[in-house]
Specification:
The structure holds three protein chains of three kinds. Chain B is mainly alpha-helical. Chain B contains twelve helices and no strands. In chain B, helix 4 packs antiparallel against helix 9. The chains are: A alpha/beta, B mainly alpha, C mainly alpha.
């Protein structure tokens, strides 16, 4: 919860369909050039075409040795990285993989001398081109930045200065590193933007960041990072904030450019599949230490450290099957080949018929005609009891608007939603209140979906109180039971949200949703903000609860890999329409629509064979 | 952009009517008869009182009085004092004085406040930051009139550098000290606001990205930290300019400067209702207009506002 | 896509051999285990803990406690009652400090020390009552504007603009002419014209909380909008409003002193720092220390309230903390 009443900036809230920009810039038609043959890109180590820096390809470009990084906080010194080692050769891509808090970004920022002011390299060395830069002067580091060590940062929304034109910001990189100046620099800016795959670059250079979509901004940041042709590019989760298909295009493009230019890349990512696909060498970090490093494929196929094994086991992009819940496999006939089809339980819990939702885009001058914007266009589906329906789509696909309508929080413009055969549209407030018991949501943002001023006990008991469980002791018994169901100790109930991790909060949100013993859960990107291991944990939990309590899920996500793990049926949405709908296995094995195929191809690491793994 | 400007102007209209009405209402419709009180110990004759009432439309219903007043106002007629002197004459002589004083104050607080705030913000946590912060809190804690007395005493009496009684002699030089006194408290607020903005912007992602491009530190500070940090400061200064004009009443009193505040205070003490209303109304109009200009300036400084407005 | 295999196997180069850390060096932890070592703390109790550790808070709290005690029980701090008949003797005019009269005497021959002590009460009353008043009135109007939105918001926002357009000091002077002022009525006038800043903060704060997902979650649980407003929105939106109101408290004390200084504030019969500063002006060149005592008391009071406001903001501001 941040408040800043006097500044109308965009907060960190996810922008969904409600505020969709009808005429806004999009990434469509961008990045066809990414279709360039990639085999040639990495064909030679440090492929020499267009390379500006010459460095013996057999000598390490960057060597991080026994690196310790310490942060000074009010509570004393906190070690963030301990004894980290890594080596990058010219033209090579090396990935650091780890969860949030593992020290991967800190390590990379230390290489560029960009640690926060309270952080310092306390031990070890960073040798770049035979020079130890860990102890180098600020002046020396500034000389290296830009034209020797470049950076593409993580979040395209916050990494461009909102007050300067895109072209100006890229030009700065050229003039600061004395690559070009004046008119020549302006010309070069346009070339760089074109090179980064931005169409209509000359016009775009004169625009401000807020006129760009996320993908376009990321391309601008890539142009900026590569402007002075560094020998090493630090790419910090360069695409994690973007839609999968855009992510794919941009990574392909970055691969191609760095390959052609012979630029080494230090790629930081939480996604093992993505790392394995893009890098030759992997460095796995856990709690500030390198736990395993080596050739990418070798690590993936023959992981040695238990943490690496755990990470590979949890990565949704590397798995290919519906989770089998421990509960259901116990009490169901394993001979039944079709998973999750429970005999005699085919009644339809929710039937959505021809749902359409139109928004009027307001806020402009009154003389400008408000253009109606169709967020959801003629969507129909059926949710069968005890099963999961996955709704997949990128931002702007209308999937969250569908969730809002199913929950009765937003009336559809036309169409209807039947809950066990009863239309929820004309329901009286009282009937609606009764319906709420039977259908509950879990939202995306683990930091926003729980009231920070409420204790966990009050959070979970809120629905009980609202729906008339009078006695406190009864409510407390139920809260304990619910905490147990989401695998949290009963003592958690005295705690407050700010003391819990994102995954724990999300489990609390699930517990609250289950409090009234609902039949349906609507999970809107419920695991998207979580780290892989935590995500896996919550997914397993959801899957077990489904079998145990015979729940039906509407599972909304942008992540196809997750859908494959949890959904029985999958519906793919694009710009408000359903493009494909069918049994999950069919959709994945034999996608009928080109859009679905593109989405599937965009799952990183999906094609990597894992030796010995049955998944 | 056009819609943004138009909307701001349209929003200003009800505020203008509301505020002038409120001022008029406060002065004229409260208990007590301004005309009867006018003579003090020697009440005016009923005939004279009636004449005055008619002249000031005080015999009309209140709302009609206000509308007639407003009608005069838009024609540039600020009414006359009870002694028959047009208020506009006082305004003509007083306005430039106050404007000049406010200009000195705003220049002083902007320059020193921003410089101090930038230094404190960039060196957060050092002794210089602490010194500046403590100084600014002290300045806020000591009321303007105390600062005024001390300044008069030190610079006027003991050092003899400045005139402590400005009177009719309103040169820039003589307004320097009063201007600084007037702007002292706002200087402290500007310093604190600038410091907060700078420390926040310094940790912004885009500043780190700018550094990663290889830009020099001075360039990062001027191009990427300062401009972003100063937008809210400019807004504050704009609101403050409007408030300084009205708040000059104390400073003008201490230094005996014949500005708007001085005249207003004089009118209050004499019970000159018409002059009071006109002076306050003028100050309110100045305030509303300066706020409007600041909103427009804000849109020029921040491209996001223009964009939002165009959507 | 699997070019990664290009460098697999034998071509491994120096520094890139397959390395595995010893497992006991970084023992695996359970995924997302709850840290049970620390005591549970709510946001408020955490803020309170941060506050207690802030030296600025301790200093200002002690000062405020003293000032409040002086305001409530001045007779405990001064054996003389400056309100008593015959408290001032013109023969003592500008008298030097003597035992029992540590600050000496003023123009009227009154004991300065006891006047400084007794002058605390009106300042504190005006400051505190005005702050509470603007918090309630501004908070209510701002929250209504933010909560209802639409035309209610438009009307309330324009109303706020109207009151905001009249400088507080001018309004207080004009309206103050119409009443027999005492600290409470003066505070009421300041509330009537000073609520706008709080209303704007409250409106923004409520609007930002209303967009939070936990509000949607609560709606989906079946909570009515009034339940939502009082149980979720108000508790979450109140912090910035409190902070602004507290930081402004010092400003109201300055205003009271300014009005008394101008002679349009509290009546002369009320002992007030502002009025004493004004009268000290007469003898400024002969007895500058007479200006110092009431000004010093005033400055320390204001300073301690500003510091308290700053400390509370630091403790409550989400920006200064990790989420």
């Amino acid at each position: 919860m941040s408040y800043d009443p006097n500044f109308p900036h965009t907060s960190g809230e996810p922008v969904e369909e409600k505020t969709a920009e009808p005429a806004g810039p999009r990434d469509e038609g961008v990045g066809d050039e990414a279709e360039v043959d990639l085999s040639q890109v990495h064909a030679t180590e440090g492929g020499t075409s267009g390379a500006v820096h010459e460095w013996d390809p057999d000598r390490p470009l960057l060597e991080v040795k026994d690196l310790d990084i310490t942060f000074t906080t009010s509570g004393g010194d906190v070690p963030a990285v301990r004894g980290a080692n890594l080596t990058v050769y010219p033209g090579q891509t090396v990935a650091i993989v780890g969860e949030s808090g593992s020290g991967k970004t800190t390590t990379a920022m230390a290489v560029a001398g960009l640690l926060a002011s309270n952080g310092r390299v306390s031990e070890g060395s960073i040798v770049f081109q035979d020079e130890n830069i860990a102890k180098a002067s600020g002046k020396r580091i500034r000389q290296l930045r830009g034209d020797e060590i470049g950076m593409v940062p993580q979040d395209p929304m916050s990494n461009l200065n909102p007050l300067w034109k895109i072209g100006f910001q890229i030009k700065e990189s050229l003039t600061a590193n004395k690559v070009a100046k004046g008119k020549a620099a302006d010309k070069r800016v346009v070339e760089l933007l074109e090179e980064a795959g931005l169409p209509d670059a000359a016009r775009r250079a004169k625009q401000y960041p807020h006129e760009f979509s996320g993908g376009m901004r990321q391309r601008a940041l890539i142009a900026m990072g590569l402007a002075a042709r560094p020998s090493l590019l630090i790419a910090d989760e360069p695409t994690s904030a973007l839609d999968v298909t855009v992510q794919r295009q941009i990574l392909d493009h970055l691969d191609m450019l760095t390959g052609q230019l012979g630029i080494a890349v230090l790629l930081i990512t939480h996604d093992l599949g993505l790392a394995a696909e893009r890098a030759q060498h992997l460095v796995v970090m856990y709690r500030g230490q390198v736990v395993e490093s080596g050739p990418a494929l070798e690590i993936l196929q023959n992981p040695q450290h238990p943490y690496t094994k755990r990470l590979i086991g949890a990565a949704p992009s590397l798995s290919s099957q519906r989770m089998i819940s421990s509960v259901s496999s116990r009490d169901q006939d394993p001979a039944d080949g079709e998973e999750s089809v429970r005999a005699g339980r085919t009644d339809e819990v929710i039937v959505a018929e021809n749902l359409t939702r139109v928004f009027d885009i307001r806020g402009g001058a009154p003389w400008v005609k408000a253009a109606p914007f169709t967020a959801v266009d003629d969507v129909s589906f059926t949710l069968e009891r005890g099963t999961t329906l996955g709704i997949v789509g990128e931002s702007g696909s209308g999937k969250s608007t569908v969730a809002q309508m199913v929950l009765g929080l937003l009336p559809p413009t036309s169409g209807s939603i039947l809950f066990e055969g009863q239309d929820i549209g004309p329901m009286s407030p009282k009937e609606m209140f009764a319906l709420r018991r039977r259908m509950q949501p879990v939202f995306q943002n683990p930091y926003g979906s729980i009231d920070p001023t409420y204790s966990i006990f009050r959070t979970i008991e809120e629905p009980l109180r609202l729906h008339g469980t009078r006695s406190r002791s009864e409510r407390e018994i139920r809260v304990r039971e619910l905490l147990d169901q989401v695998a949290l100790p009963a003592a958690t109930m005295q705690r407050y949200p700010n003391e819990l991790s994102g995954g724990q909060r999300q489990r609390i949100a699930v517990a609250r949703a289950l409090a009234l013993r609902p039949e349906v859960l609507v999970l809107d990107e419920a695991v998207s903000a979580l780290d892989v291991l935590v995500q896996d944990q919550v997914l397993t939990l959801l899957n077990d609860l489904q079998a145990e309590l015979d729940l039906s899920y509407v599972f909304i996500t942008h992540d196809l890999a997750v859908v494959r793990q949890i959904a029985d049926r999958t519906m793919v949405m694009e710009t408000g329409r359903v493009v494909e709908h069918g049994a999950t296995e069919d959709v994945f094995r034999d996608p009928q629509q080109e859009y679905t195929q593109r989405l599937l191809e965009a799952i990183p690491g999906g094609s990597i064979p894992l030796a010995g793994s049955g998944r | 952009m056009a819609w943004y400007v138009l909307r701001r102007v349209l929003q200003m209209i009800p505020v203008f009517f509301g505020a002038t009405f409120l001022v008029y209402f406060l002065v004229f419709s409260m208990p007590g008869d301004p005309i009867a009180a006018l003579g003090g110990n020697k009440p005016l004759s009923p005939a004279v009182q009636d004449r005055l009432r008619a002249e000031y439309n005080l015999d009309e219903p209140f709302i009609v009085q206000y509308l007639l007043y407003l009608q005069g106002l838009v024609q540039g007629d600020f009414g006359t004092t009870f002694a028959g002197r047009p208020v506009i004459d006082d305004i003509r002589s007083a306005f430039p004085v106050t404007a000049r004083l406010a200009l000195v104050a705003i220049t002083f607080e902007a320059i020193l406040g921003i410089i101090g705030g930038v230094i404190a913000g960039l060196r957060k946590g050092t002794w210089i930051d602490s010194t500046l912060l403590v100084t600014s809190i002290m300045v806020i804690a000591v009321p303007t009139f105390v600062i005024g007395f001390v300044a008069q005493f030190v610079f006027g009496v003991q050092l003899g550098w400045v005139t402590i009684n400005v009177g009719a002699n309103v040169t820039w030089q003589n307004l320097l000290l009063p201007g600084m006194v007037l702007g002292a408290v706002s200087f402290a607020y500007v310093l604190r606001l600038t410091r907060t903005q700078i420390t926040e912007t310094m940790t912004a992602d885009h500043v780190r990205t700018a550094t990663a491009k290889g830009l020099s530190r001075p360039r990062v500070i001027t191009v990427h930290i300062l401009r972003n940090s100063l937008i809210p400061v400019v807004t504050f200064l704009g609101v403050d300019l409007g408030q300084l004009m009205g708040g000059a009443i104390v400073t003008e009193g201490i230094f005996n400067i014949p500005g708007l505040g001085f005249h207003l205070f004089d009118a209050i003490q004499r019970g000159e209702s018409t002059k009071m209303v006109s002076m306050v109304t003028l100050l309110v109009i100045i305030f509303i207009i300066s706020n409007l200009l600041i909103d427009l300036l804000y849109a020029l400084l921040d491209p996001r506002i223009r964009y939002d407005a165009r959507k | 896509m699997t070019h990664a295999s290009d460098t697999g196997g034998a071509t491994t180069r120096r520094g890139q051999e397959h390395f595995v850390a010893p497992v006991d060096e970084t023992p695996l932890q359970a995924v997302d285990a709850l840290n049970t070592d620390v005591k549970p703390r709510s946001l408020w109790s955490q803020a309170w803990r941060d506050l207690r550790r802030n030296p600025m808070f301790i200093v200002s709290a002690v000062l405020i406690a003293i000032v409040t005690a002086v305001a409530a029980f001045p007779q405990l701090f001064s054996s003389l009652d400056p309100y008593a008949q015959g408290a001032c003797l013109l023969t003592n005019r500008y008298g030097d400090p003597i035992p029992g009269h540590p600050f000496g005497f003023d123009l009227q021959g009154c004991d300065v020390y006891s006047r400084v002590i007794y002058g605390a009460r009106p300042s504190v009353i005006v400051g505190v009552v005005t702050t509470i008043g603007v918090f309630l009135l501004g908070g209510l109007i701002g929250a209504m504007a933010g909560w209802f939105g639409g035309w209610i918001d438009s009307i309330l926002s324009r109303l706020t603009d109207v009151f905001f357009a009249i400088p507080l000091i001018l309004a207080a002077i004009v309206v103050g002419q119409l009443f027999a002022l005492n600290p409470i009525t003066l505070a009421m006038i300041l509330v009537l014209f000073g609520w706008t800043a709080i209303a704007r903060i409250a409106r923004g704060s409520v609007m930002s909380v209303m967009n939070a997902e936990f509000i949607t979650a609560s709606k989906a649980l079946g909570a009515s909008s009034s339940q939502n407003l009082f149980r979720h929105v108000v508790p979450n939106a109140v912090a910035p409003v409190i902070v602004t109101a507290m930081v402004n408290l010092g400003m109201y004390i300055v205003l009271e002193a300014t009005l008394s200084f101008l002679g349009v504030g509290l009546p002369e019969s009320t002992i007030s720092w502002g009025a004493d500063i004004s009268s000290a002006q007469t003898g400024l060149y002969t007895r500058p220390e007479l200006l110092f005592y009431p000004s010093g008391a005033l400055a320390i009071t204001i300073l301690s309230f500003i510091m308290l406001g700053d400390a509370v903001r630091d403790a409550l501001d989400p920006k200064t903390k990790k989420r």
